[in-house]
Specification:
Distance between the termini: 27 Å
Radius of gyration: 19 Å
Helix content: 40-55%
Oligomer: single chain
Strand content: 5-15%
Shape: globular
Largest sheet: 7 strands, parallel
Length: 286
């Protein structure tokens, strides 16, 4: 298997929502490539400390952790202030914190919409504001979207389509409108921020992840499939694997690898892009 060998030695990264799941994999992968990492969490302090301990054991890099709620601009400002005070600089910012949402159209409340957009949209904008303020010339900002923002291609599944149809289906996801809208907003934001931060030679890109076996995978995967709430984990894996030409479920390290690439010097001519990391479950048009 090809392994990215870019050197991030001497770089400092802030990763929001990084005490567990995809964020933890991103922090670990960047550390593997020599990058000092600032781990952010909202509530899971013990997990953040445990991750720091593991990274410090495995890699010769500096780590730090900061509690901050990305939906609060004052918290995001404090996160960056503390990180720069301790680390001296910031070169890479990964806006990974986000929340999932499913809800019936008729019963979704305004407060639910606000909660999702406060984290998934406003939170990423607040992170970008501080990144622009503190990041070094030539830095890297990576935002997070989802294939839910565009469409989901369910191959080899009889999901909300007549049984007689055998071709792949490209469609939205039921009960997922608020989350999809929040992630679609980030793809538009990415293009504009690329211009705003380009004057400092900072690249801004976005990762739209497909189904990834993270800490919330078992629960959320069932929401993408019809009449499957009684499936076992291996059965869920088989269904999700069938969406990809590669025939497997995505792992947090798959997303982390793309972040490492975008954070590298080799990615200096990539900006304003949303890159789909879904194992081909969704294939973006040219």
């Amino acid at each position: 298997m090809y392994e990215f060998t870019g050197n991030l030695q001497g770089k400092v990264a802030i990763i929001t929502g990084s005490s567990r799941g995809i964020g933890a994999a991103i922090a670990t992968t960047l550390a593997k490539h020599g990058c000092a990492v600032v781990i952010n969490y909202k509530e899971s302090a013990l997990e953040a400390k445990s991750l720091r301990k593991q990274i410090n054991k495995d890699y010769d890099v500096t780590t730090y952790d900061v509690q901050a709620d990305v939906s609060k601009p004052e918290d995001v400002a404090r996160l960056f202030e503390q990180a720069v005070t301790v680390m001296g600089r910031v070169d890479i910012v990964v806006s990974n914190a986000g929340i999932e949402h499913f809800g019936d159209l008729a019963t979704v409340k305004s407060e639910e919409i606000d909660r999702v957009f406060d984290v998934n949209v406003k939170g990423q904008f607040f992170v970008a504001q501080q990144a622009e303020k503190y990041m070094e010339e030539g830095g890297r900002l990576v935002l997070t979207s989802s294939v839910s923002a565009v469409m989901v291609c369910f191959n080899s599944l009889r999901f909300l389509r007549p049984a007689s149809r055998s071709e792949p289906v490209c469609q939205g996801v039921p009960r997922h409108a608020i989350y999809a809208a929040s992630k679609a907003a980030v793809t538009g934001m990415t293009k504009c921020l690329a211009w705003d931060l380009g004057k400092k030679n900072i690249t801004v890109n976005c990762i739209a992840a497909g189904g990834v076996k993270s800490d919330m995978y078992d629960k959320n995967a069932k929401e993408y499939m019809k009449d499957t709430h009684e499936l076992s984990v291996p059965e869920i894996d088989a269904r999700v694997s069938s969406w990809s030409p590669l025939g497997r479920v995505g792992m947090p390290e798959d997303i982390a690898g793309m972040v490492a690439l975008l954070a590298s010097d080799e990615a200096g001519w990539i900006t304003g892009q949303t890159l789909h990391v879904s194992g081909g479950a969704h294939m973006a048009t040219a």
